[in-house]
Amino acid sequence: MLIVGLTGSIATGKSTVSTLLKENHSLPVIDADILARKAVEPGTRAFNRILATFGNDLAIRDDTGAIIGLDRPALGKRVFSGDEAARKQLNGIVHPAVRWLMVKAVVWEWLVRGSKVVVLDIPLLFESGLDRFCGLTIMVSTRTELQLQRLLARDAHLSEEDARGRIASQWSIEDKKKLADIVIENDSTKQALEQNVSKVVKKHFSRSWFWTYFLRIPPVGLFFGFLAFLRRLSIRREKRKAT
After folding, report:
1. pLDDT digits (tens, 9 = 90+) for 131-172
2. How far is CA 203 from the centre of its chain?
3. Best exposed site among 65, 79, 166, 175 by fewest CB in 10 Å?
4. Is 229 exposed, middle or buried (0-12, 13-18, 19+ CB in 10 A)?
5. pTM of this prediction?
6. Count of the separate structural domains present in the chain
7. Distance from chain centroid for Cα 45
8. How many other C-beta atoms can be found within 10 angstroms of the C-beta atom of residue 181?
9. Domain that holds residue 184
10. In this structure, is residue 83 part of a structural domain?
């Protein structure tokens, strides 16, 4: 199985590319944001640790007082307001839980569904180091001013200061582009984006003989996965030296 890491800074269009890969090209997509919500559902270990760390006032309760969810906007404001320590605390709670759910989802796609390619849609792919486990990485990019416009249009509850804070909390687009194998520019129309995505799929995901005779055989697949892991480590080191 080829594991493809898909990423992009906030409001660059990563989710649109993810949807195109899933709906237009029938590729299985494992969405880290969805898994992150599942990982912090009421009653989970991560949910309880968030309340213990950041306060019980973040719990959403029904009329009877029963906890039914997490106040994600309030939590986001708290950790994206420039408090680096708080953001690291939250990541330390959520990321391990999400990774475990992701591993189970990948194994399911490989051994149960026999998928040739699986796409990991991960906003913090490079920041978390998960790109090391991907055979190929794709970065969705856009101009910084357009990124800010899209974020403010998408999340009307954010002030411009809040929006800039969220953008600044992630690695810069340029830093991510240096580590990515493929960069998809999203500065134009959705039609142009669809064409760019189709070109990437046709070029990189269509080696049918390779998938049939190698990647669907578990021992050989593990071997190729190990080689890909070593390759990603080498790429990360070399590109970091160049910065």
Report:
1. 888 888 999 999 999 999 999 999 988 899 999 988 988 899
2. 22
3. 65
4. middle
5. 0.80
6. 1
7. 22
8. 17
9. 2-28+115-241
10. no
CA 72, 12, 41 angle in degrees (round to 5)? 25
Per-residue confidence (pLDDT) for residue 209, from 0 to 100: 45
Q: Do the domain assignments include residue 91? A: no
Using CA atoms, how far apart are residues 18 and 16, in angstroms rounded to an integer? 5
| Residue whose token pair is 């269009």 | 13
Distance, in Å, from the CA atom of 204 to the CA atom of 198, rounded to the nearest integer, reads 10
| 21 domain-assigned | yes
DSSP the chain: -EEEEEEE-TTSSHHHHHHHHHHTT---EEEHHHHHHHHTSTTSHHHHHHHHHH-GGGEEE-TTS-EEEE-HHHHHHHHSSS-HHHHHHHHHHHHHHHHHHHHHHHHIIIIIS--SEEEEE-TTTTTTTGGGG-SEEEEEE--HHHHHHHHHHH-TT--HHHHHHHHHTSPPHHHHHHH-SEEEE-SS-HHHHHHHHHHHHHHHS--HHHIIIIITSHHHHHHHHHHHHHHHHHHHHHHHHT-
- List the structure tokens of 238: 């070399």
Only one residue has tokens 């026999």, namely: 114
Q: Is residue 50 part of a domain?
A: no
The residue assigned the tokens 């990437």 is 200
CATH of the domain at 231: 3.40.50.300
